[in-house]
Input
Amino acid sequence: MGDIDWAGRMARLPDEDLVEIASSGEADGYHQLAVDAAVAELARRAPDETVISRITAQVEADRQFQANRHDVPLSNGGRVAFVFFGIFLLWPLVAAYVLHHRGYSRKAKEALWAIPLSMALWWAVMSALFFFLG
Output
């Protein structure tokens, strides 16, 4: 990994990405040479302190959201969509799987609970139609 031009790569990145990489380190999956190159590039650019503080706050808010995304609930529109279209098993199962894989475990769990609710709803609607029109 020593043959990668980290300085050249960091020179092409915006300040937001440089601050994120420089404040992250190897614990977040960045190679130490990349972190060092990001710090050097930030020192070379010498952005305004207000810009750095704004970017740092934005990066911290992003990290906070990423750390807590497993507990984000399914939106009301998402619930309606899963209940209304849950009878068609393929796409709701795929959508719940994708949500779970992206780290939204609570959303995935709520989506999976909406599928049997959808089946019960559609069964009740079809039974009522059959009973009243039948």
